Amino acid sequence: MTKFEPESQKKFNEPDVVGCLFHDKRQQILSVLVEKEMTVYGLKTALKMNPGVVKRHIDSLLEHGLIKQTRRDQNKMGMTLKYYRAVAMKYVIFLEWEKP
């Protein structure tokens, strides 16, 4: 399997994606995932968040295409570990208004 490399930047103007990007905890998670891939447990530890909260935000970030699952591994106890990474190093938001 080849290592996932995020794009240099990704542009968004969809209101639901923009709203997702403006959420404080999701920004914290994204800032970590821009730097490296991590599991929910790794994010929980790094950000001192409840794992259920991290998972809920991960699901939203996945749904909006801001992150992706990069790989799966099994630990020594047979648990499946899912790794996530940001899809881009930089997120750009652009807004347009049309004249009524």
Provide an overview of this structure.
By secondary structure, the protein is α+β, with helices and mostly antiparallel strands. The chain has a single domain, classed as Arc Repressor Mutant, subunit A (Orthogonal Bundle), CATH 1.10.10. Helix content is 40%, strand content 21%. Strand 2 (67-74) and strand 3 (80-86) form a beta hairpin. Helix 3 packs across helix 4. The longest helix has 13 residues, at 51-63. The N and C termini lie far apart (51 Å). The model has no long low-confidence stretch (mean pLDDT 92).
Largest sheet: 2 strands, parallel
Domains, number:
1
CATH class: Mainly Alpha
Query: Count the helices. How many?
Result: 4
Spatial shape:
elongated
Q: Could you tell me the number of beta strands?
A: 4
Radius of gyration: 15 Å
What string gives the helices and strands in order?
EHHHHEEE
CATH topology label: Arc Repressor Mutant, subunit A
The strands making up the biggest β-sheet line up spatially as 1-4
In helices, the fraction of residues equals 40-55%
Strand share of the residues?
15-25%
Distance between the termini: 51 Å
Structural class by sheet pairing and helices: alpha+beta
* Corresponding CATH superfamily: Winged helix-like DNA-binding domain superfamily/Winged helix DNA-binding domain
Q: If classified by CATH, what would the architecture be? A: Orthogonal Bundle
Given as residue ranges, the uncertain stretches (5+ residues, pLDDT < 50) are none
Mean pLDDT: 92
